[in-house]
Design goal:
The structure holds 2 protein chains of 2 kinds. By secondary structure, chain A is α+β, with helices and mostly antiparallel strands. Chain A is built from 4 helices and 9 strands. In chain A, strands 1-2-3-5-4 form a 5-stranded mixed sheet. Chain A has a 4-stranded antiparallel sheet with strand order 7-6-8-9, with helices on both faces. In chain A, helix 1 crosses helix 2. Chain B has 4 helices and 14 strands. Chain B is elongated, with a radius of gyration of 20 Å. Classes of the chains: A alpha+beta, B alpha+beta. At the A-B interface, strand 2, strand 3, strand 4 and strand 5 of A face strand 3 and strand 6 of B. Chain A: This is Exosome complex component RRP41. Chain A: Belongs to the RNase PH family. Chain A: It is found in: Cytoplasm; Nucleus, Nucleolus; Nucleus, Nucleoplasm.
């Protein structure tokens, strides 16, 4: 959109946030009774649902079974009504397949797959409403779902997107900011150790600015970690109250 | 605001319905097109959320079946398609209804038809007028007020009632376990006046003609009760106005 200022002179973004501010995050674990683990997250207007089945026996060909660790299988699906224009294919198109592979790579780094050899863990993510930062919302929802399923992980996986506009790094981009064409970066972080599980950027950015953007994204991901940690503790407290009495 | 001659703006309205253990989400979406006003249904139960068997293309069969059933239950009187017309023989609204199946807890068709009816009730069609140029080219213009909309009348939209035959009796609103015990079911599509628009028998077993009549009568009775309670619930939610809390999964 020509003439749309992504960052005003006073330092406010289009939706009134500051450069390093995250959108409101609300999450809930254990949304579905049938699945082994499930979680729902709302990051601003982006809504994502994650469901985990497993660890269970390998479905399909036994030859895919890995002798020393579990197989992580991810599917990313975004509903036809998730975007402003009605999408024809919810999954199976190139972008969804690529995001599924990225999610798989992210979670293979975090889940302790050596504890479940020759089995399979399925992570299905559904985007109900997309307003920017869909990969980040999916990773955060999937982390909570994996924790709800009781699958051991090395650490939380917290993700956030970041962009670069007018010499400032913006975090947690909304759809308007993503569509503007400015460079954007998606980062999935393991907060305790500071290790990066996934880093993805497909735009031109001068290497001098890279460190600034990376640091902003990592800081935002640590902020997401604080929130997710609170959600998990609240969920465990509620569950233990139900079991205790 | 103005849209082009073809493929104009879309609006989507989303509602989520938990019915026992079955979660469905229904959404209606509009777009402008040339030709006859029509109503298109797409079922996306290929969401692997419901069960791992629906991964990839696994859920397509069930999705097609549900989409075809929904297309059948909507006959001439259900929706006033004339209200979807913008200018006769030129522009009209196409109504897309997308259903996303989130969890399978039994009684799928009922939950989906309730979701569709509620989504249609919630739909707002923006008021448009057609401006004609000197050269004769037409442009569609939306009114400036975003709340200036037409509502669809869902009085005659039917709901599906599934009756499962278990032993010698039949049940409505069966859970997964009850469905597993039943050999045959009857799907009856009933409007709020008790008019049956479509009927279908599903399942491996066979049904006695006597039991079909019994089940149909039960279906009509249950259907009327379902319509009245659904209507009162929808009106109650509508009366809360724009300030009502949208709870979704977080409630």
């Amino acid at each position: 959109m020509a003439g749309l200022e992504l960052l005003s002179d006073q330092g406010y973004r289009v939706d009134g946030r500051r450069a390093g501010e995250l959108r409101k995050i609300q999450a809930r674990m254990g949304v579905f009774a049938q699945a082994d683990g499930s979680a729902y997250i709302e990051q601003g207007n982006t809504k994502a649902l994650a469901v985990v089945y497993g660890p269970h026996e390998i479905r399909g060909s036994r030859s895919r079974a890995l002798p020393d660790r579990a197989l992580v299988n991810c599917q990313y699906s975004s509903a036809t009504f998730s975007t402003a224009e009605r999408k024809r294919r919810p999954h199976g198109d190139r972008k969804s397949c690529e995001l599924g592979l990225q999610l798989r790579q992210t979670f293979e780094a975090a889940i302790l797959t050596q504890l479940h050899p020759r089995s399979q863990i399925d992570i299905y993510v559904q985007v109900l409403q997309a307003d920017g930062g869909t990969y980040a919302a999916c990773v955060n929802a999937a982390t909570l779902a994996v924790l709800d399923a009781g699958i051991p992980m090395r650490d939380f996986v917290c993700a956030c997107s970041a962009g670069f506009v007018d010499g400032t790094a913006l975090t947690d981009l909304s759809h308007v900011e993503e569509a503007s064409g400015s460079p954007q970066l998606a980062l999935a972080l393991l907060p305790a150790s500071g290790q990066i599980a996934l880093l993805e950027m497909d735009a031109r950015l001068h290497e001098d600015h890279l460190e600034q953007v990376l640091e902003a994204a990592a800081q935002a991901a640590r902020g997401v970690h604080t929130l997710l940690d609170r959600v998990v503790r609240q969920h465990v407290r509620e569950a233990s109250i139900l079991l205790g009495d | 605001m103005s849209g082009g001659q073809q493929g104009g703006r879309c609006h989507a309205f989303f509602i989520s319905i938990p019915l026992g253990k079955a979660h469905t989400a229904g959404c209606s979406c509009l777009s402008v097109c040339k030709g006859l006003p029509c109503f298109s249904c797409a079922i996306l139960c290929s969401s692997a959320n419901a069960t791992p068997e629906f991964e990839g293309r696994g859920g397509d069969d069930l999705g097609t079946e549900i989409a075809n059933t929904l297309a059948r239950i909507f006959n001439k009187g259900s929706l006033d398609l004339k209200s979807l017309c913008i200018s006769p023989r030129e522009h009209c609204w196409v109504l897309y209804v997308d259903v996303l199946l989130l969890e399978c807890g039994g009684n799928l068709f009922d939950a989906i038809s309730i979701a569709v009816k509620a989504a249609l009730f919630n739909t707002r069609i923006p008021r448009v007028h057609v401006l004609e140029d000197e050269e004769g080219s037409k442009e569609i213009e939306l009114s400036d007020d975003p709340y200036d909309c037409i509502q669809l009348s869902v009085e005659n939209v039917p709901c599906i009632i599934t009756l499962c035959k278990i032993g010698y009796r039949h049940v409505v609103d069966a859970t997964l376990q009850e469905e597993a015990c039943s050999l045959a079911s009857l799907l009856v599509s009933v409007t709020n006046k008790g008019v049956v628009t479509c009927m279908r028998k599903v399942g491996k077993g066979s049904l006695d003609p006597e039991s079909i009549f019994e089940m149909m009568e039960t279906g009509e009775r249950v259907g009327k009760a379902l319509h009245s309670s659904l209507q009162s619930l929808l009106h109650k939610e509508e009366s809360l106005g724009p300030k009502r809390q949208k709870v979704g999964f977080l409630g």
